[in-house]
Design a protein that fits this description.
Layout lengths: L5 E6 L10 H9 L2 E6 L6 H7 L8 E6 L6 H20 L4 E5 L9 H10 L3 E5 L4 H9 L11 E5 L5 H5 L4 E5 L5 H10 L6 E5 L7 E3 L12 E5 L2
Parallel strand pairs: 1-4, 1-5, 2-3, 2-4, 6-7
Antiparallel strand pairs: 7-10, 8-9, 8-10
Helix pairs in contact: 3-4
Length: 230
């Protein structure tokens, strides 16, 4: 009997194909099945990133739908459905590469799938990727830690403690800010930090938008990350 199939959670970076790591490419090559989240419009952005770098000839592409919801029951339903598809492939003896933009350990949908696979007796492995906020800082040419002992705070825009975090010392990274960009702008203005903020939307993708001033941010873009320097 051959080796047991493995579920890989693979971070493919923020969207630029040349930021995919060699380890990620090798893990994808080892898998017969490539699974990827699909947006409501039918796009699979992580898969698009990988196609430009990896040869997917002969591999099964598995599109997985996830709800953009905060309802625990709705999320569980989608996680269960995605895990069922992945487990079907694993039980058939096929290793699965689950692709996620950025890094697999940061706001990723991989963890609930890994938990279900492990409960079913399968091995899971994480392959790190370039985090979006690191790529964004590099594109902007800014140092996230201008002083060696400065902290860096990473927070989603929907977090109820955003105002509190913005008041902390150090650099602040506000992720997934597209739908709440006006709220973010208001908080920054109220705290006198508006001029210290820059943003990038769709980092590394063809429609990337670099906003040295938040006035240049396009409303509604999901992949909007704001960096607020000390």
């Amino acid at each position: 009997m051959g080796e047991q199939a493995v579920l890989y959670g693979i971070g493919v970076g923020p969207g630029a194909p040349d930021l995919i790591t060699l380890r990620a490419m090798r893990a994808i090559e080892e898998c017969a099945v490539v699974a990827c989240p699909r947006t409501s419009s039918g796009n699979m952005l992580a898969l698009d990133t990988v196609r430009a770098t990896c040869d997917l000839t002969g591999k099964t592409i598995m599109a997985l739908d996830f709800a953009m919801s905060r309802d625990a029951a709705v999320l569980k339903e989608h996680h269960d459905a995605a895990a069922k598809s992945i487990l079907g492939a694993l039980r058939s003896g096929d290793s699965v590469a689950f692709l996620t933009l950025g890094d697999v350990t940061l706001y990723s949908t991989f963890t609930p799938l890994a938990e279900r696979a492990e409960e079913a007796g399968f091995q899971t492995t994480m392959v790190p990727g370039v985090p979006s906020f690191c790529a964004i800082a590099a594109t902007l040419g800014i140092d996230l830690t201008p002083q060696m002992n400065d902290p860096v705070h990473i927070i989603p825009s929907a977090n109820s403690r955003l105002a509190e975090v913005l008041d902390l010392p150090g650099t602040k990274v506000i992720m997934k800010a597209g739908k709440r960009i006006e709220d973010v702008k208001g908080l920054l203005r109220a705290q006198g930090k508006y001029d210290k903020a820059q943003a990038i939307q769709n980092c590394g993708m063809p429609n990337e938008n670099i906003a040295r001033n938040l006035d240049a941010v396009v409303p509604g873009e999901y992949f909007t990350t704001v960096v607020v320097l000390p």
